[in-house]
Amino acid sequence: MNTHSRITAVLGLGSPHGDDQFGWSVVDALTHCRRALPSIHVRLVKLRHPIDVISWINDQTQVHLIDAAVGCPIDQVLRLRCKVPTEWRTIECLPAKGTHDLSLGTVLGTAESLDKPIESVTLWLGPAQQCSPIQLMSARTAEAVDACARKLEQTIRGAGPLADPNSHLTPQSVPPSARAGAVTRAEDFDGEMPDSRIDLER
Amino acid sequence: MSSERIITVRALTRVEGEGALHVRLDGDEVEDVRLSIYEAPRFFEAFLRERSIEDVPDLTARICGICPVAYQMSSVHALEAALGITITPTIRRLRRLMYCGEWIESHSLHVFLLHAADFFGCASGIELARQFPQQVNDGLQIKQAGNALLEVLGGRAIHPVNVRIGGFHRLPAAGELTALLPKLREARSAAIAAADWIAEFEFPACEFECEWVALTHPDEYPMNAGLIGSTRFPAIEVDEFEDHFEETQVHHSTALHATRRERQTPYLLGPLSRLNLNRDRLRKPAREIAQRLLPQRVIHNRFLSIAARLVEIVHCLDEAIESIQDYRAEGEASCRYAARSGRGCAATEAPRGTLYHAYEISDDGRVRRAKIVPPTSQNQRQIETDLAHFLPAVLDQPDDQIALSCEKLIRSYDPCISCSTHFLKLTMERR
User: Fold this and answer.
1) CA-nearest residue of chain A to B68?
2) Residues A43-80: pLDDT tens digits?
3) CB nearest A54 (choices: B140, B159, B423)
4) pLDDT in tens, B411-431
5) Mean pLDDT, all residues of chain B
């Protein structure tokens, strides 16, 4: 397959509620620096429902999927690659408040059942501490937005770690219990993941 | 001697929102069924007060991530009634087109990914997709067609922003809509083909008579205009709604219950209600599928709602295609108006049933009072009644199977609990 003909889709999952705005806010931040991105092949999209991710999972699209994660370390953004099954399968569903309880984990599982190329999906998870209705994001989550947007921009422009074909996460480095729902959960993480964590600048 | 038995389902999946179901049994007698919605009230009616009426469509769209169009439509129609605005035929048809998008999107998700799994013993859409990849892919394709309609007409698929009092902020260019035609035609073929699949489903017996309520319209399948019809009582004007229906607070739920005001009886809204009252106004392909999949009388089996949703998907795809073919981007995007004091109400058909809005507005165009009656809260009392009737037939099953059966019945209503005030837990007590 000619990878140069592929498009890159940056999909921000979220809602207007508290730290669940993380995904949408990263898309907003990237939209503001759009000129720095390859104009033709990058799509920036906000989604409300995890199920709408599925139509983006195809052979022509590299998907960067951004979501808020309850339990994600508050000073980090986690990156998980779906091409490594042991990574995304560690995402666990929370009781979801999303589209009829179709969580991100269920959607990725359904995509896999439908033989869709989920290896083209990379998850970027930001910290979520509170998702109260129509509340502002927490200060740490807002900081994570900037860090995630910067790293994604570098990645899309080919300067980031994803541009390095030798860069991948080892199963040992996956958080043992990253759990995803409409609001993703990633807790109990105590492993070393040099490529998969973006530390927020202080 | 009494012995107490408690059955708990910690998570009723594939419904929208959070709540719990408590069942108390005395032997084989069902003593009490309570559908508890414990989602915190969101006070939308309160924080709409003193807001500019221009803010109302976008604010009310935030009530629900599944049916924002319904909230926008009921709000603008109610405000237009208060302001004495008559919208143009073009705007009216575009609003129906937008409603078609929402019904297609919402129904296809429920039919192909949420509800169908119940008829094959699949625990989730993941299992269903393994067994029926073609049908699930078709469902996703149909949903995409609905999403695309909403994006063009609403400005974006999530919480559309193009609707305003008097019409739209911007009319879509004809080319934007005609570009959707191939996708809509493919979706229509897929939806018609799905009738063969659903025709093979085995539907559990669940024939409980009840009052079915929906909008009725002499010339069209109802979406955003008409009288409030009933299978038991004469149709009423929408502005008589509060004379005939009332909301009451119950101890076990943060969502209000709705009943007939005089008789305190429950009623049911939704696709089966619409079909029961408007079947002859379906377009031909949809009517033919209804004839094939559904009985030719008032339908009472709640599990047949999946077939009713498919019928409505076909109807909407057909109407959408014709509306787009006929569309010319002519005239003003919205009717001009001057703010004035007044009161207005409207009912439109959300995917889950009739959604009523009423507003009082002041001279300076601010909301004085807002009343919003969503379909799921109206259905709650009837769902409890149905469960009480349904349970005796499954009481000989193990507790986990009883819980599963209740979950399936509740899913057939496609409840949107987040609308009514948000996951359901089932607790069963046996004495």
Assistant:
1) A48
2) 999 988 888 999 999 999 999 999 988 877 778 888 88
3) B140
4) 888 876 544 332 345 565 666
5) 88
- Under DSSP, is residue A146 helix (H, G, I), strand (E, B) or coil? helix
CATH code of domain A3-199: 3.40.50.1450
Per-residue pLDDT, averaged over A25-40, amounts to 78
Q: A38 pLDDT band (50/70/90 cuts)? A: low
Give the fold, CATH level 3, of B54-378: Cytochrome-c3 Hydrogenase; chain B (1.10.645)
Which residues have C-beta within 8 Å of that of residue B242, sequence separation ≥ 6?
A: B345, B358, B371
Chain A contact for B388 (CB, 8 A cutoff): no
Q: Give percent helix, percent strand, percent coil of chain A, each to the nearest 5.
A: 35, 25, 40
- Residues 280 through 319 of chain B touching chain A, CB cutoff 8 Å: none
Q: Which residues pair with B345 in a beta bridge?
A: B358
Asked whether A167 and A152 are in contact (CB, 8 A), the reply is: no
Domain boundaries, chain A: 3-199
Comparing CA positions, the residue from B374, B316, B366, B308 lying closest to residue B342 is B366
Q: Which residue has the tokens 């690659």?
A: A81
Q: How far apart are CA B335 and CA B156, in angstroms?
A: 22
Look up residue A55 and give its two tokens.
Answer: 């139509």
DSSP state of B12: E
- pLDDT value for B424: 42
Q: Which chain A residue's Cα is nearest to B105? A: A52
Please state, as a whole number, how many other Cβ atoms lie within 10 Å of the Cβ of residue B280. Answer: 8
Q: Which residues on B lie below 8 Å from A52 (Cβ)?
A: 147, 157
- SS3 of B214, please? strand
**Residue numbers belonging to the annotated binding site of B for Fe cation:** 67, 419
Q: Is A98 in Cβ contact with B133 (below 8 Å)?
A: no
Q: Do A99 and B66 touch (CB under 8 A)?
A: yes
- Taking the domains of chain B in order of start, what are their residue ranges? 5-40+392-430, 54-378
Helix%, strand%, coil% for chain B, nearest 5: 50, 20, 30
Instruction: Report the candidate in A169, A110, A59, A41 with the shortest Cα–Cα distance to residue B117.
Output: A110
Strand, helix or coil for residue B29: strand
Q: Which residues in chain A have Cβ-Cβ distances shorter than 8 Å to B137?
A: 114
Q: Does B156 touch chain A (CB under 8 A)?
A: yes
The size of the A-B interface in CB pairs under 8 A is 79
Residue-wise pLDDT for A89-148, tens only, equals 666 555 444 335 577 888 888 999 999 999 999 999 888 888 776 678 888 899 999 999
Q: In this structure, what token pair is assigned to residue B326?
A: 């006929």
- Asked if B42 and A97 come within 8 Å (Cβ–Cβ), the reply is no
- At residue B405 the predicted structure's pLDDT band, cuts being 50, 70 and 90, is confident
Residues in chain B: 431
Closest by Cα among A82, A30, A32, A92 to A57:
A82
